[in-house]
Description:
The chain is an alpha+beta fold. It is built from 17 helices and eight strands.
Amino acid sequence: MGLSGNLKTVSFSDILQLLATGKxxxxxxxxxxxxxxxxxxxxxxxxxxxSVNSSEDLLGNMLLKRGKISKADLExxxxxxxxxxxxxxxxxxxxxxxxxxEITECLRMQIEEIVYNLFSWxxxxxxxxxxxxxxxxxxxxxxxxxTVIMEGTRRIDEWxxxxxxLPPDDVVIAVSKRPKTKSEEILMSVDEFRIMAxxxxxxxxxxxxxxxxMGEFVTYRALYRLIVQKLVEVVGKKEEAAADKEDEEEVVxxxxxxxxxxxxxxxxxxxxxxxxxxxxxxxxxxxxxxxxLQVYFSGAEPNSELAPSFEKFLNTVRSQPVSIRxxxxxxxxxxxxxxxxxxxxxxxxxGPFRDVVTKVKKEIAEPLAIRRELVKRYSIEENxxxxxxxxxxxxxMIRG
Length: 400
């Protein structure tokens, strides 16, 4: 089965669905410039996954963070594993530190964490090697791929809500001294209780994620719920060494530039995929935006040779009066986005329109997560979703 490409054009969930329905056996390899992950399948179900160049997903590291093994026992097991060449999981069983069932369950958690993380990748090359099996996996598990797709999609949707509440990365989180609860009884899940135990008024959000014995998403979700329940709060910025003053306007404009260029590229790509690259109706429609600041959002693939220059965009924005330039930019982009989405519906129908909206939402997750405090302050995300709703309202009105 010749399956290869980039996650920019084919989503991870679509790849999983294709392999599951085809009951394929083999290796799905996914790479970016800094990360590489491998997911193995048997008869369409996931049986193993690994991170080639990351220590975060290693079994020993996971067991240590979860408090399931002491550092001394882990060091002994690693030494023996290197001497014998046997896998760490097998070595831990041989040393009678764990039962085989316990190691299998830990591997299941590790594999799930690796696979669910891939749903958030906005790009990355992938290739499927049919019939290839894991070389060094003494234990394999079996995850129903369709169940994984549903859970991964649910996590992406939940993450959209979670990141709206999470504090900036440079502030310290502490337990609230006077929790504002409606009752005397406070109910917490096990995950929330574990995270609450780590919060000592000295750590930031990234530091708590690094300390957490649970997966990244589970930790974010637990923190989100603690914040919503007003059981934890922000107590100020973490003291750091003095740094050069940041050009806030440039940072905001870079987020906007990245976000909307991704959107317009995704819209154009999906329409071309449906109608074929020779179809000229959408490019003709998009040509009306080749004026002013909108010329920098051409729908070209980001980071390609055809992509507009951020430096030129920045200079053009700053050539306008300070009092109106941000408003002028954003009102133009919001109108452009709404109009293009409405045209997608007119051109290819409601099904592709819904698909475009879903994929555009996924596309913006990364730029929106870069500097959450600025995204909130400048209402970038809020206005983006208002624009999506505006287009959806027009579509519903047309359909009656």
